[in-house]
Design brief:
With 293 residues, the protein is of the alpha/beta class. It contains nine helices and 14 strands. Helix 6 packs antiparallel against helix 7 and helix 7 packs across helix 9.
């Protein structure tokens, strides 16, 4: 069964290793007078502009830094002063070195900095991440939460616990009523939870609960990947995770093996739209439940 699962999981690329970055276009969406969302390749970027400077959330891939900078330059002449990493995965952080060398301060949860400072393996994708150079590492870290008062925005950054990884940061632009969720919330089924590197389905659900408490019907939510979203989109995502988690939990309590749980089809009613297969996702949930929360 182990070989079968490896085959099911296989090499599931977040992006193609042969991606043509020259063909990528950066799309800009205005969310408020000070907040914008940039879409390109990799994690969605949040941008906060104003008199104080430019503050961004995530920075995608290094080859896209020039295009991202040009897109931001159409919004403001002020250079990027702060970059917040929602977590340490390469499709959200590989631009760190370029922005760091240009003078930006990188900010992250302390666990994300620790992982960026050392070689990592994203096992499900067969992807190695080499330790980042000093210029790419966060200069500012936090353990539970921190706040910026910047460009007329109260920007609250918080970490609930193990979720997509062990170092996720959720960013709340209070006055503009915008949440940037990183990969704790994505617009595809089934989500990648990096369980070997500290991710956990229960923690992911708890983090969604926290975000839902902050949101209302007017909140604009920037997902890690996918289109601009609403609170209802987030709640639907949470419901899907909870339903599958609970189905797996019942089988675990009955003493069923992973093979038996997969055969029971706990993801029934949902169709895979991302890179993670149904069976691979069941294994992620199973592993989350079998380890300490």
């Amino acid at each position: 069964m182990r070989n079968t699962l490896i085959a099911l999981i296989g090499f599931i690329p977040l992006v193609s290793g042969a991606q043509d970055f020259d063909a990528v276009e950066i799309k800009t969406t205005k969310l408020s007078d000070s907040i914008y969302m940039l879409e390109g390749s990799g994690g969605n970027i949040g941008v906060c502009i104003g008199e104080d400077g430019t503050f961004i959330v995530d920075d995608q891939f290094a080859p896209l830094t020039k295009k991202i900078t040009v897109a931001i330059g159409k919004l403001t002449p002020k250079p990027v002063q702060f970059v917040v990493n929602t977590h340490w995965h390469f499709d959200h952080t590989d631009g760190n070195e370029n922005f760091g060398k240009a003078g930006a301060f990188i900010v992250s949860h302390e666990n994300s900095r620790e992982r960026m400072a050392n070689d990592q393996l994203i096992a499900l994708f067969g992807r190695e991440m080499k330790a980042y150079p000093q210029e790419a590492l966060p200069k500012i870290t936090f353990r539970k939460s921190m706040s910026f008062h910047y460009n007329g925005e109260t920007i609250n950054i918080f970490h609930v616990g193990r979720a997509h990884t062990d170092g996720d940061a959720i960013v709340h632009f209070v006055e503009s009523n915008v949440l940037h969720m990183g990969d704790v919330f994505v617009r595809y089924v089934f989500p990648f939870i990096d369980e070997p590197n500290g991710g956990n389905v229960n923690g992911l659900i708890r983090t969604l609960d926290k975000a839902a408490d902050l949101a209302d019907g007017e909140t604009q939510i920037i997902p890690g990947h996918g289109p601009l979203s609403t609170k209802q989109d987030l709640l639907d995502f949470r419901q899907m995770l909870t339903k599958i988690r609970d189905r797996v939990k019942v089988k675990v309590r009955e003493g069923k093996t992973l093979e038996e749980i997969i055969a029971s089809d706990p993801t029934r009613g949902y169709k895979a739209t991302g890179s993670v297969t149904k069976d691979a996702f069941v294994k992620i949930v199973y592993d989350s439940l079998k380890k300490p929360k």
